[in-house]
Design goal:
single chain, Rossmann fold, 2 domains, 4-stranded parallel β-sheet, 19% strand
Length: 325
């Protein structure tokens, strides 16, 4: 009986030690911060690249943080993105790095995240400053000056056109900060060049809608010479509509994002220029920023990232001549 008891006690001790080991391993695992990356449309190559870059960064730093990647089907699906934020709050993540589909509509949900003690970092599309102030939020932003980038592209495309040139602009979601800023940048370039904006319509960042709207614009404004699209998806749609229209003159078309699908059209002259904003790095910058904040480093202040022009000849500097380093 004594021997049996000794065996039982030994097995029981091993069981306790095993449980303690599992608990310690669980505690070590849970000590890593959980970072949620919430994207816009994962049907858009720009955001797919951003997500893949984040996953690659995590694969090289698995001991530092855990990563959860989410995205919405369409860039206009605001309700789904709000639901993702609430889902991440319920999961108890430590940080949310978000590329908001709308600059205003996401703020209440992000306020709930901040109130739950979650670090929030805004990338790519800046949240509306006035709405943030209404909720008493100070959320750091990491991204480029969309206005400056669009202005650079506009200046480049319009530099050889005469005063009075007719221009059309395809904007994204009208309430999205980056759409607003890109539209303003294009408008400033047109104003300085003496060009006339004869059409301004939203294609909601969507390629199919852009093709339909461009077709209608060309029908109503047959003398248009230049079309600016606030992202490359819409530029692809516009290029299709221009090709179908069989016009008696060429149209200079420009986009924004430098996705791979746009590059053959740059090479064949269908698209004159686009903007490279190095979007694949946004998520990584946001994640690194969030992890530093969670480690106790100061988290205030924005970070402006670069934006450059891309043409068939390659990446251009602001002087529009030298190859950028």
């Amino acid at each position: 009986m004594t021997l049996i008891r000794m065996i039982f006690l030994s097995l029981f001790s091993l069981f306790i030690l095993a449980c303690e080991g599992e608990q310690a391993a669980g505690d070590a695992s849970s000590s890593k911060p959980k970072v949620a990356l919430i994207m816009k449309s994962l049907a858009n190559e720009f955001f797919v690249n951003m997500a893949e870059s984040a996953k690659s960064h995590h694969s090289k730093n698995p001991e530092i943080y855990d990563l959860i990647v989410n995205g919405i089907k369409n860039e206009s699906d605001l309700a789904q993105q709000v639901a993702l934020v609430d889902q991440m709050i319920a999961m108890g993540v430590n940080a949310i790095v978000i590329c908001p589909a709308d600059s205003k509509a996401l703020v209440p949900a992000l306020a709930r995240a901040v109130n739950a003690g979650i670090t929030v970092v805004n990338i790519d599309n800046r949240l509306d400053a006035q709405v943030l102030a209404e909720f008493g939020l100070n959320i750091p932003f990491i991204g480029p000056s969309n206005r400056d980038g669009a202005k650079k592209v506009g200046d480049f495309v319009l530099k050889n056109y005469p005063i009075g040139t007719e221009v059309a602009i395809l904007e994204g979601i009208p309430t999205a900060y980056n759409s607003i800023e890109r539209r303003i940048g294009f408008e400033l370039a047109a104003e300085e060049a003496g060009a006339k904006v004869v059409a301004l319509q939203s294609a909601q960042w969507d390629q199919t809608k852009a093709a339909q709207i461009t077709s209608a614009i060309l029908s109503q404004n047959p003398n248009i010479n230049v079309i600016f699209a606030a992202n490359d998806n819409m530029a692809l749609g516009a290029a299709s509509a221009i090709n179908m229209a069989q016009l008696d003159h060429e149209i200079a078309l420009a986009g924004f994002d430098n996705i791979s699908a746009i590059r053959p059209l740059l090479q064949n002259g269908s698209i004159m220029a686009t903007a490279e904003q190095y979007g694949d790095k946004f998520a990584v910058f946001g994640i690194e920023f969030a992890v530093k904040v969670l480690d106790g480093e100061p988290g205030s202040g924005d970070r402006q990232t670069p934006v450059d022009i891309v043409t068939a000849e390659g990446l251009l500097s602001e002087r529009y001549g030298a190859e950028a380093e």
